[in-house]
TrEMBL record, chain A:
This is Transcription initiation factor TFIID subunit 5. Residues 296-307 have a biased composition (Acidic residues). Residues 296-348 are annotated as: Disordered. The TFIID basal transcription factor complex plays a major role in the initiation of RNA polymerase II (Pol II)-dependent transcription. TFIID recognizes and binds promoters with or without a TATA box via its subunit TBP, a TATA-box-binding protein, and promotes assembly of the pre-initiation complex (PIC). The TFIID complex consists of TBP and TBP-associated factors (TAFs), including TAF1, TAF2, TAF3, TAF4, TAF5, TAF6, TAF7, TAF8, TAF9, TAF10, TAF11, TAF12 and TAF13. The TFIID complex structure can be divided into 3 modules TFIID-A, TFIID-B, and TFIID-C. GO terms for cellular component: transcription factor TFIID complex. It comes from Ptilorrhoa leucosticta.
From TrEMBL, chain B:
GO terms for molecular function: protein heterodimerization activity; RNA polymerase II general transcription initiation factor activity; transcription coactivator activity. This is TAF9 factor. Belongs to the TAF9 family. Keywords: Nucleus, Transcription, Transcription regulation. GO terms for biological process: RNA polymerase II preinitiation complex assembly. It is found in: Nucleus. It comes from Ptilorrhoa leucosticta. GO terms for cellular component: SAGA complex; transcription factor TFIID complex. It comes from the Eukaryota. Pfam families: TFIID-31kDa. Gene3D superfamilies: Histone, subunit A. SUPFAM superfamilies: Histone-fold.
Length: 712, 206
């Protein structure tokens, strides 16, 4: 009660009703300092919020699609106000507990979030409300039913959690038992977790569920269906459900045909519903950066030197070589200096020349010419192999293991050598021509080097493009940088305090990205001990992180079943892709930078057009989690490796070729996925019982695969 | 490892049956048989810890018996201590916004291996060797300084510094990524008689 009074005083003050406020305050005899703490929290709400509060609940449309709530979320705010901003529209005073909560409890953010569940109506009637809605939806026209059925899951979860939060355990249990079987099959995992949350205290520790509550579940519904729903719910007896819909759902309305069940099923599945249309409207520079031009001699000797061009900015006319395109700037490519990138050293230039030479000898793949697959099996790993990476020139392979070791092998006959000790180094002749070979120690050369240092299983490994460094991330919360010239650990980057699931070097080196259990991905540079960028927004762990080939964007796949594309320059989320029904474990950008392929535990590979922000393909075939995805060097073939012990090859050229991206599609996000998985599948290659953990195309388009033999 | 078979209901004790049922309810179908034992041990340890804490709180509040509030408080305190959870979303969005506002730093050209400042790297020697030579000191308490000292004798790791040059010169290599290797070197380390204030390298006069 006291809290209600405090909140009402707040409201009056903000609405500039000073006299009423004074009168009420005098009557209630409250002290000024009661309001002091709470003022700070709600003072940052925008004036628009007060306007929203004045709008009666009946005007749902204004709130539904005008995006006031999203804009409130973006302001700099203290802990309590997003919930305050959101629920001010509700007729009941939900924000009272929040204001009071900041002052009283010492976990204000948690209780603020949870108190969004203040009681809406009589708990025993929740089952009536839900079954009433269910009946209405089932009796509606076919064309609307599919769209309106999207409401079932979020409403079910939110109503259940409200009952639990308000400590109506028996009602919650009977509500759950009665309706959980009606939900779609792809939500079953979530429902199982939900069934274990039976008390209010259980909700506190579960960050993912808390995030689910504060973020609005997004539904995309056509205008006709929405009108139908609104009319029904605004009848007198259904006001409670309408309030709940207002509070927890964001309905993105589009004008056009209602979607079919199939279209909806392709796009739903994530913890936050679908993506709002404007979330995918930002311009993304998906083109590639210009490569510096070299004069590649056609004869076998390496003739470097005077014809070489260093900086890509100088466009002096040179001899055309393999792969150079027109001099005009690709409109979809980012400017060269959009993000600072390290300049090329001499060794990098040598590398590039080698790369181009190999590219000239590359096999052109296609449906008639499939790659050969060379499988590297890790024996005696006892299910401890947790991460694999191969260098770009396929000379070294690294394995991260559950016993916290990182092991590096040389794939070529050339052994791994480390730099000599300082004593020996002082003895060599520094002026000789082959000093770079002399500094290497022959006595300790071996094919395998083991790196010790982590204190937990190593979940991700990545070689740097210049093969000087190796990154590994682990359950101990650190990312370690190892030198591949001394085979020692150089730096431990601490920032995630929770298991780090994946890390990757940028294609140009120097930057790397890591993602972990704390639901954020971080961008680091090797010479900064703190991250440069933090990409926050996912509702659950970030399980997979990849750089775009132009190093300006980062894709993160998460256990909340969405993929987000982030801009390195300013940390903004520029794309949200929903559609997977399980946590995402693999991501691959196509070499031309336009498309993204993703694989998850649901066994499907989804293909996305980055420029338009749409799903363009779905590849069905695998029966278990897909842990490895890789495009061939020129993007003609997509290879996928999975826990079902197979490697599958898909025709990428055909999958991307007929894209109808007219205005209607991009406006409404309707997609019509062709059922052509069988046509696109070029081959299935089974291993005996080795799940495929990593795939890599060599520079000549030979496919290397890696996995650990598991004897069951 | 082979997929486990659940213990036959007749022979397993009731607690184990309950635990197996819990695992089944949470959707876990394949587990090794020892998982049930581990879960039971954990449950036992957790419950006894909570109840002991609750007893302490109850006696602190001068109550005659432990009641539900004490147990609730004990659970809350233990949760904050042992089972930390990642930061809440608001906080993450806030710090992300702050961090993302600073522009990306420019990259200095030609700077060798790009690593953080030395105190954040793991490249410093993390050991000290004991003195090999026992010098007879003419004055009490004065310890002679050897020819070469490596590293400041302080608790923080720092880069090796050179003292007076000796016959065996340690060259700090400028090679990419190669730390100074101390294996195979004979040298002694300065042992201060008082707390060191800074880096070493000041030779004492015997």
């Amino acid at each position: 009660d006291r809290q209600t009074l405090v909140a009402v005083l707040q409201f009056l003050r903000r609405s500039n009703l000073r006299e009423s406020e004074e009168i009420l305050r005098r009557e209630a005899r409250l002290l000024g300092d009661d309001l002091g703490g709470s003022v700070a929290t709600v003072a940052t709400s925008s004036p628009g919020v007060a306007a929203v509060a004045a709008v009666p609940p009946g005007k749902g449309e204004a709130r539904g699609d005008c995006g006031v709530r999203p804009s409130c979320r973006r302001e700099p705010r203290k802990v309590g106000s997003p919930c305050a901003a959101r629920s001010l529209g509700i007729s009941r005073c939900c924000w009272d507990t929040r204001v009071g909560a900041v002052v009283v409890e010492d976990q204000p953010d948690v209780s603020a979030v949870l108190s969004a569940y203040n009681q809406q109506g009589d708990p025993t009637l929740y089952e009536e409300y839900y079954s009433g809605l269910k009946h209405f939806i089932e009796c509606s026209l076919d064309c609307h039913r599919a769209e309106l059925s999207q409401l079932f899951y979020p409403l079910f979860v939110h109503m259940y959690l409200e009952l639990v939060y308000n400590q109506h355990e028996s009602e919650a249990k009977s509500f759950f038992d009665r309706f959980h079987g009606d939900q779609e099959c792809y939500y079953q995992d979530d429902l199982r977790v939900l069934s274990s949350l039976t008390k209010k205290e259980h909700m506190k520790g579960n960050e993912t569920m808390l995030d689910f509550r504060t973020s609005k579940f997004v539904l995309r519904i056509s205008r006709d269906s929405y009108q139908l729903l609104k009319r029904h719910l605004q009848e007198k007896q259904n006001n409670q459900i309408w309030n709940i819909v207002q509070e927890h759902l964001y309905i993105d309305i589009f004008d056009g045909m209602p979607r079919s069940k199939q279209q909806i099923d392709a796009m739903v599945g994530s913890l936050a519903g679908e993506a709002k249309r404007e979330a995918n409207k930002a311009k993304v520079f998906f083109g590639l950066l210009k490569e510096p031009e070299f004069d590649v001699p056609l004869d076998d000797e390496d003739e470097e030197g005077e014809n070489e061009e260093g900086k890509p900015k100088k466009k002096k006319p040179k001899k055309d070589n393999v792969g150079s395109k027109s001099k005009k700037q690709d409109p979809n490519a980012p400017p060269q200096n959009r993000i600072p990138l390290p300049e090329l050293k001499d060794s990098d230039k040598l590398d590039k020349v080698m790369n181009m030479k190999e590219a000239a000898r590359r096999v052109r793949l296609g449906p008639e010419c499939l790659p050969s697959i060379c499988f590297y099996t890790f024996l005696n790993a006892y299910q401890g192999l947790t991460a694999v990476d191969i260098t770009d020139d396929s000379s070294m392979i690294v394995g991260g293991f559950a016993d916290s070791t990182v092991r590096v092998w040389s794939v070529t006959p050339k052994k791994l050598r480390s730099v000599k000790t300082a004593a020996d180094l002082s003895l060599i002749d520094k002026e000789s021509d082959d000093v770079l070979e002399r500094i290497m120690d022959e006595k300790t050369a071996s094919e395998l080097k083991i790196l010790y240092g982590h204190s937990g299983p190593v979940y991700g490994t990545s070689f740097s493009p210049d093969r000087n460094y190796l990154l590994s991330c682990s359950e101990d919360g650190t990312v370690r940088l190892w030198s591949l010239q001394t085979f020692t650990c150089l730096v431990g980057y601490k920032g995630h305090n929770y298991p780090v699931w994946d890390t990757q070097f940028s294609p140009y080196g120097y930057y790397f990205v890591s993602g972990g259990h704390d639901r954020v991905a971080r961008l680091w540079a090797t010479d900064h001990y703190q991250p440069l960028r933090i990409f926050a927004g996912h509702l659950a762990d970030v399980t997979c992180t990849r750089f775009h080939p132009n190093s300006n964007y980062i894709a993160t796949g998460s256990a909340d079943r969405t993929i987000r594309l982030w801009d390195v320059l300013n940390g903004n989320c520029v794309r949200i892709f929903t559609g997977h029904k399980g946590p995402i474990h693999s991501l691959a950008f196509s070499p031309n930078g336009r498309f993204l392929a993703t694989g998850a535990t649901d066994g499907r590979v989804l293909l996305w057009d980055i420029g338009h922000g749409l799903m363009v393909g779905e590849l069905k075939g695998h029966t278990d989690t897909i842990y490895a995805l890789r495009f061939s060097r020129d993007g003609e073939i997509l290879a996928s490796g999975s826990m079902d012990n197979t490697v599958r090859l898909w025709d990428a050229v055909k999958a991307f070729e007929d894209l109808e991206t007219d205005d209607f599609t991009t406006a409404t996000g309707h997609i019509n996925l062709p059922e052509n998985s069988q046509d696109l599948l070029l081959g299935t290659y089974m291993t005996k019982s080795t799940p495929v953990v990593h795939l890599h195309f060599t520079r000549r388009n030979l496919l290397l695969a890696a996995g650990a033999y598991s004897s069951q | 490892m082979e997929a486990a078979k659940m213990a036959s209901p007749k022979s397993a004790p009731k607690d184990a049956q309950v635990m197996a049922q819990i695992l089944k309810d949470m959707g876990i179908t394949e587990y090794e048989p020892r998982v049930i034992n581990q879960m039971l041990e954990f449950a036992y340890r957790y419950v006894t810890t909570i109840l002991e804490d609750a007893k302490i709180y109850s006696s602190h509040a001068k109550k005659s018996s432990v009641d539900a509030d004490d147990v609730r408080l004990a659970i809350q305190c233990r949760t904050d201590q042992s089972f930390t959870s990642p930061p809440p979303r608001d906080f993450l969005l806030d710090i992300a916004r702050q961090k993302n506002q600073t522009p990306l730093p420019l990259i200095k050209p030609y700077s060798g291996p790009r690593l953080p400042p030395d105190r954040y790297c793991l490249t410093a020697p993390n050991y000290r060797l004991k003195s090999l030579q026992k010098k007879v000191s003419s004055t009490a308490g004065r310890i002679t300084v050897p020819r070469l000292s490596v590293g400041a004798v302080s608790s923080r790791p720092s880069t090796p510094t050179l003292g007076t040059p000796s016959a065996q010169t340690v060259s700090v290599s400028a090679k990419v990524g190669a730390p100074v290797s101390l294996a195979g070197q004979r040298f002694t380390v300065q042992i201060p008689s008082s707390q060191p204030a800074g880096k070493s390298g000041i030779p004492g006069i015997p």
